[in-house]
Amino acid sequence: MSGSEISRRTLIKTTALGLAGATLNIGAMRRALAAGDLTVGVVYVGARDDFGWNQAHAVAIKALKEVPGVKVVEEENVPETDAVSKSMESMVNLDGAGLILATSFGYYTPFVVDLAKKYPDVEFRHAAPLWNKDKDPKNAGSYFGYLNQAHYINGVAAGLATKKNKIGFVAAKPIASVLSNINSVLLGARSTNPNATVQVIFTGDWSMPVREAEAANALVDAGCDVITCHVDGPKVVIETAEKRGVMSCGHNASQAPLAPKGLITGAEYKWETIYKGYAADLAAGKNPPNFLTGGYEVDFVRNTPFGASATPEAQKAALAAIEGLKAKKPIYVGPLKDNKGKLVIDKTYDNLDPFLDKMDYLLEGVSGSTT
Fold first, then answer.
1. Calpha distance 192→293 (Å, rounded)
2. How sure is the predictor about 25, in pLDDT bands with cuts at 50, 70 and 90?
3. In terms of domains, do 87 and 121 share one?
4. What's the chain's average pLDDT?
5. What is the distance between the alpha carbons of residues 333 and 352, in angstroms, rounded to a whole number?
6. What letters, b where the CB count within 10 A reaches 16 and e where it falls short, cover 98-118?
7. Per-residue model confidence (pLDDT) at position 288
8. Is 201 found in the same domain as 136?
């Protein structure tokens, strides 16, 4: 699972993104410099070619492999059970890994925490914002990205691409990070097309291929001519949109091969920024930061290169909006009401403001219910 259920903003104030002042980790340094290599172990909960959460990490690991002096050991389809402990421990003991990247939500407790205590000279980092500075090992940590920023860009482009002013959104669960992506698509679309609306259907879980196909078809039948989503593996949603002859925006990883005609763009994580930073720290004998998060302003997210359905006008607007996000231009500018008429955003919020993690509503302009 993506780990999207958990707040990724609350620790920002306590952890700097810069690496200055990091303390020496002699054990990690010895591992990094042994035979001139740093060995990185990576575990995935699913297949590396799922066109979703796992593929987003695999793409970043491929880039990491190109870094001189870095060796990577990978294992896919590792369940969130004691099996992941065995996989990670094997990477430490048999492969000499100095850094373990645990990429699924359920890997953290107790598996990452327990192994970090057992192997204090190995650095463990987990792709969900769960690390607690008061109780967790100092050689463990968390990292995550604000994908809602890239979904905002999806909306900017979709607002100019839609002919019917109706964008469909297939979503897993009505939790804060999913709602943030839905609402960000709406705000992006309305920044370029005030008449744009979003219609959402929740499937109930992270991977429900049959329901995802049904939801995508229902949205097309309801008149949506752009379809996007927040599920772990968007493949079915994007393929369904393509078969129905409507446009689409991707999620998690590039969906370009699945929608040669309909793709506009997509929201992607850019994990390689984080992974290359970790490798550089360890090679220099430094502890990587325990907590990293951010969006376009720190190069942690990106948008898929424009597809065939991205009009020149949409491309221009999206590129300008990306520059705005890099400069920390806010997405949530009040006053904004939810789709029941209640004032929910009363002022302008910074894109990293913890208040936004409390999101439990759909904005006015979104058709759907959180219950």
1. 28
2. very low
3. yes
4. 91
5. 13
6. bbbbbbbbebbeebbbebbee
7. 95
8. no
